[in-house]
Amino acid sequence: MLTVAEARAKARTKLTASMAAWAARPAEAAGIDIALHPPTEAQVLADQRAAADWAASWRAIAAPESPSTGSSSTESSTTDGVRVDWAERSWARVGRQQVPVRLRLTDAEAVAGFVGGDPARRWRCLRDRAATMRSGFGETEALASAIRAHGKRILGLDDEAFTTLIDVVDWLRAHPVGRLRPRQLPIRGVDSKWFEGHRSLVTALLTAAGCPAALDVLDAEARIRMRILDEHLAPHGLGDVTAPVTELAALDLSPEVVFVFENLESVLAMPAWAGAVVIHGSGYAVDAVAELGWVASARVIYWGDLDSHGFAILARLRAHLPAAASVLMDETTLLDHRDLWVTEPRPHTGRLSGLNGTENRALARIRAEGNVRLEQERIPWATALTALQAQAGPGLAEHG
């Protein structure tokens, strides 16, 4: 016997999972049916009070009408789209009884009305915002796709932020003024930080509005920290540089080896090294490293944390630079420093391509041990330098 509370929980789950799709295409938003699993005669005889109370709870939702002569079932409905199907049971020891057998919520509004509370409020908010966007940008499949894909983000905006979003899209549609910095947009509350958080949503809505090229607004260009370890390579003696990617790419450099480290302290600790530069590939900044044209002709050596994200960054680097080697990212290094492990709070759980056998075994061990992490900075520096020299190969000896 499915209780009213249990039916509401099922409907709540469906509403939460489907509200973006329903808001995207309200005309296609189907209702839901929920089987109520009425009791058997044996169950009624075992606890008649429970069976009677259960039927009464559904009668309060939608009481059965009086059946027509000869009818074995009757369907009852309410004005808010909540319908309960009742069926007659003829039992030898209990007699004829009308029992609820199915709850039918005819559309999204009925689902929300039956569920109530915060989920219903969230549905109505998203429904209304989707209607606003359709009114302004047209009822197109592109807009429906944008609402489905970004429903949570649209719903997560407060009223002021949603109004700002619509204002930005409207302004960019009407003003094809070329390349702008976010600071130049004459819209209150819009700056670089706002664009950083809303660019994908603005892009999706502009595409849906038929103006995919309107978003020619530039974020701040990615900047990279780099140390040139060989003074003979350093332009004008400049050995420690933080600059936009395009500026670093324009340097006339020809290093033999490029170290890419995840940890800045390791970058700063590197000694003078013939023919070498070291780049801070923090997080997923390795995408920008690959934009430095002179890196492609060098031997690239990556060293990151021994954890799932360290290997995810390595895989990402290899997508751009397939020949990149890794150092200190193997199972032996992991196990030799077991006492320095910590737990990775939010591990990367997806499959990674581009790793070699040694790296895959280390990653598998990390996960088998409970998603542990050996941070790069915890490995003794003397151990690290020895491994880096061995990986860099002959002719690239440390000096100074």
Short characterization:
This protein is of the alpha/beta class and 400 residues long. It is 44% helix and 16% strand.
Would you mind describing this structure in some detail?
The chain has helices at residues 4-24, 41-46, 48-61, 108-115, 117-137, 141-156, 159-174, 192-208, 245-249, 264-269, 286-289, 308-320, 331-336, 357-368, 381-392; strands spanning 32-35, 73-77, 82-91, 95-105, 223-228, 240-244, 257-261, 276-280, 299-303, 325-326, 342-343, 372-373. The chain folds into three domains: 4-65 and 72-115, no CATH class; 117-208; 223-392. Helices cover 44% and strands 16% of the residues. By secondary structure, it is an alpha/beta fold. Residues 68-72 and 395-400 have low confidence and may be disordered. Strand 3 and strand 4 (95-105) form a beta hairpin. A six-stranded mixed sheet has the order 6-5-8-7-9-10. A four-stranded antiparallel sheet has the order 1-4-3-2. Strands 11-12 form a two-stranded antiparallel sheet. The longest helix has 21 residues, at 4-24. Helix 1 packs across helix 4 (108-115) and helix 1 runs parallel beside helix 5 (117-137). Residues 7-206 form the DUF3322 domain.
